[in-house]
């Protein structure tokens, strides 16, 4: 729940920023000189890119959460079997051990979105965020029946 609140707060701050920057771009355009219109258009591009990125990220999170809910309903969410340090951090060797299991599971069933979901969680636990995101995107695509590249 805390993550959802943090995400919503961050999204709200970004939206406020995009409106603020966008209004400055409009003000520059309204000035009417070639230079300010050029800068105004350039400034308006930033919120458009930001809104696109925020939208894509929000869609990704919603789809990943939907997969998690479906997997939870099936009883297939990965069990937290990771060892932790006294400070609560995941032990790296433990994460690598679980990752090896998840990778083997995914190699045995490369077209199963469930195994890709669990692999994404293992990547995340191993602190490999880019690969975790790619594995989750693959899980989403497989779940949605979209073809994926190997």
Amount of helix: over 70%
The biggest sheet, with number of strands, parallel, antiparallel or mixed sense and barrel status, is:
none
Computed Rg: 21 Å
Figure out the total of helices: 5
Low-confidence stretches: none
Order of helices and strands: HHHHH
**Through-space gap between termini:** 34 Å
What is the oligomer described by this structure?
A: single chain
Proportion in β-strands: under 5%
Query: Tell me, what's the shape?
Result: elongated
Structural class: mainly alpha
Account of the protein in words:
The chain is mainly α. It has five helices and no strands. The relative contact order is 0.08. The mean pLDDT is 90.
Task: Output the keywords.
single chain; 150 residues; mainly alpha; 5 helices
Spell out the blueprint of helices and strands.
Layout: H1 2-31, H2 34-74, H3 92-108, H4 113-125, H5 129-143
